[in-house]
Design a protein that fits this description.
Layout lengths: L4 E4 L2 E4 L1 H27 L3 H38 L1
Antiparallel strand pairs: 1-2
Helix pairs in contact: 1-2
């Protein structure tokens, strides 16, 4: 995500710190889910492992689609600003 400065009532806030915290939480959740998946496979709990795998794959797809949506949007708006 891009760093943004938000101005509220003559005060400027840097959102990069917020984004880093969000990314850390997402990374911890992802690592926890991956560890749970590995444990389920090791314990031959394939039903839960399959559900966790589907959830992890869905998360990866959602993240990839979101990144591409942002990329396309940035290109559209940047090219329209360059034309003006």
């Amino acid at each position: 995500m891009e760093d943004e400065n938000i101005e509220v009532e003559n005060e400027t806030f840097d959102t990069s710190e917020i984004e880093v915290e969000d990314e850390n939480i997402e990374n911890e959740e992802s690592q926890s889910m991956e560890a749970d998946f590995v444990n389920a496979v090791a314990e031959d709990d394939f039903r839960n492992a399959g559900d966790m795998f589907s959830a992890m794959l869905g998360n990866k797809m959602r993240d990839a689609l979101e990144a591409e949506r942002i990329n396309i949007g940035s290109n559209m708006f940047n090219s329209s600003e360059a034309e003006n």
